[in-house]
Write a structure and sequence with these properties.
3 helices, alpha+beta, 99 residues
Amino acid sequence: IRIGIAVPLVAPDADGLPRAAELEQLGAIEDRVVEDTQGLAVLAIVLTTGAMREFVLHAATSDWIEDFHRSLAQTVVTHEVQMMAQTDPDWDVYEQFVP
């Protein structure tokens, strides 16, 4: 199961990338994602483009994802947290970035 966590940037620069202060906030979000999904999922890719940071994870099960999303959205107060999950047994998105 591929899990995509999209975090729209609050104040991107002219190129749609985060500025220094926001990079620290995004780093804290990433740390939280890794910590809270330990043993449940693997963080495969972190993308920053188009005024958004996306964390792409892969997991074997989905029964925990809804609770994780709810918890993350409630505790991250600096940014909106959007999440989706779908079946991806071949890691298709990951394969697009890793030769």
